[in-house]
């Protein structure tokens, strides 16, 4: 990394980043210029980042390129922009793909984590001036989810990062900035799983297994995991799954199988795949009267949902979940504390540790279904 100025003020710096030049094209390690943080922004030295399925999906399908993906990350504050008072150089932070301004209607409601100011950013530019902080030879390189952590350095709005204890390992807790927290929150905040209840989870990736962990902590009596990958069976037990069901091995429909296991349908169903057709299946595997289906997956195709009104007339409920309902800046420190006290598992989701230069290997492993989370380690 090199800086363009020896001044005490933050200057443009040059570092390495994994740039996606087009949909589905292998990422290329490039020298990029990273602008200094503007008002209410911070520049972060990324320490560890992991590949989330939404990165993979966007890389395959989205139209904004060239781009730096990555949003599940941890790092150290390198510099702060004007007006920033809550962060200082050297602070350890988690990045947030959806921010929290703490002043808008949603942030102050106590009912929502959908910040009206710093919510999901899909346009590839910074909130404040609609410009990028990355460039190569003067040409803009676009952001992803307000984070872009596949870079040695990145710039985020101060509302899109949260300070964490210096004592916790950054290479582990990066998973809390998206997948693990999303699953735990869906179980605890959105569904509010009760003790002794029955739960079915469609899709046993990191998010689905985090739902399982959350259900286990809440004392669910049955936690049924549904996945077409037979290799998920054993690891699922680690996170609390009591029954593993592979639809490819069932003669009856999966909802019929679930209804038999649960004596009439599960209390809670979670769709963690991103398949709108599977949402209908999840609804059908819930019990009448109070069955609740929570959808966490983000579909790549066919985003419209079709369901028979009788599903809801019979008392079933469908809810959506973004980041598990957590208010990210307010709530994530409590999850970090739970990890420190060994009240929740994180390390067990990390199936591969990969060097930054080998980042494309992480994409291959996820496409082939051979990993949960690949943690990518940036150069020190």
TrEMBL record:
Gene Ontology CC = cytosol
| Reaction catalysed by this enzyme | a secondary alcohol + NAD(+) = a ketone + NADH + H(+); a primary alcohol + NAD(+) = an aldehyde + NADH + H(+)
The Alcohol dehydrogenase-like C-terminal domain covers 207-339
Alcohol dehydrogenase-like N-terminal domain residues = 39-163
Q: Does the keyword Metal-binding apply?
A: yes
Q: What are the protein's GO molecular function terms?
A: alcohol dehydrogenase (NAD+) activity; S-(hydroxymethyl)glutathione dehydrogenase [NAD(P)+] activity; zinc ion binding
Cofactor(s) annotated in UniProt: Zn(2+)
Check the record and name the SUPFAM superfamilies matching this protein.
Answer: GroES-like, NAD(P)-binding Rossmann-fold domains
Q: Cite the EC number.
A: 1.1.1.1
The Gene Ontology biological process terms listed for this entry are:
formaldehyde catabolic process
Q: Which InterPro entries does the UniProt record give?
A: ADH-like_C, ADH-like_N, ADH_Zn_CS, GroES-like_sf, NAD(P)-bd_dom_sf
Sorted alphabetically, which keywords does the UniProt record give? Metal-binding, NAD, Oxidoreductase, Zinc
Does the entry feature the keyword Cell inner membrane, yes or no? no
Entry's family note? Belongs to the zinc-containing alcohol dehydrogenase family. Class-III subfamily.
Quaternary structure and partners: Homodimer.
Protein name in UniProt:
alcohol dehydrogenase
**What species does this protein belong to?**
Cucumis melo var. makuwa
């Amino acid at each position: 990394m090199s800086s363009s100025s020896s001044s005490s003020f933050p200057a443009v710096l040059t570092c390495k980043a994994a740039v996606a030049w087009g949909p589905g094209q292998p990422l290329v390690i490039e020298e990029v210029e990273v602008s200094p943080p503007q008002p209410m922004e911070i520049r972060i030295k990324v320490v560890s980042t992991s590949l989330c399925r939404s990165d993979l999906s966007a890389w395959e399908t989205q139209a904004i390129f060239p781009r730096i993906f990555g949003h599940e990350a941890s790092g150290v504050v390198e510099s702060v922009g004007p007006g920033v008072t809550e962060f200082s150089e050297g602070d350890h932070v988690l990045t947030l793909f959806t921010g929290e301004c703490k002043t808008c209607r949603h942030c102050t409601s106590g009912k929502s984590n959908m910040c009206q100011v710093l919510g999901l950013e899909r346009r590839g530019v910074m909130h404040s001036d609609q410009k990028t902080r990355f460039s190569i030879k003067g040409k803009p390189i676009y952001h992803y989810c307000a984070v872009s952590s596949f870079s040695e350095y990145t710039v985020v709005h101060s509302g899109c990062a949260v300070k964490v204890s210096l004592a916790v390992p950054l290479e582990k807790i990066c998973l809390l900035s998206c997948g693990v927290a999303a699953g735990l929150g869906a179980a605890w905040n959105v569904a509010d799983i009760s003790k002794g209840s029955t739960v079915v989870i469609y899709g046993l990736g990191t998010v689905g297994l985090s739902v399982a962990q959350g259900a286990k902590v809440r004392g669910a009596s049955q936690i049924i995991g549904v996945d077409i990958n037979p290799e998920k069976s054993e690891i699922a037990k680690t996170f609390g799954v009591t029954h593993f069901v592979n639809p490819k091995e069932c003669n009856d429909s999966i909802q019929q199988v679930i209804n038999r296991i649960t004596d009439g349908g599960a209390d809670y169903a979670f769709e963690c795949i991103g398949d709108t057709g599977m949402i209908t299946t999840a609804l059908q595997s819930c019990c009448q009267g109070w069955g609740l289906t929570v959808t966490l997956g983000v579909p790549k195709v066919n985003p419209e949902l079709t369901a028979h009104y009788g599903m809801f007339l019979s008392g079933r409920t469908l809810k959506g979940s973004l980041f598990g309902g957590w208010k990210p800046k307010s709530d994530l420190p409590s999850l970090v504390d739970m990890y420190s006290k060994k009240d929740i598992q994180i390390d067990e989701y990390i199936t591969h540790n990969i060097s930054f230069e080998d980042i494309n290997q992480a994409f291959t492993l996820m496409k082939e279904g051979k990993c949960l989370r690949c943690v990518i380690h940036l150069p020190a």
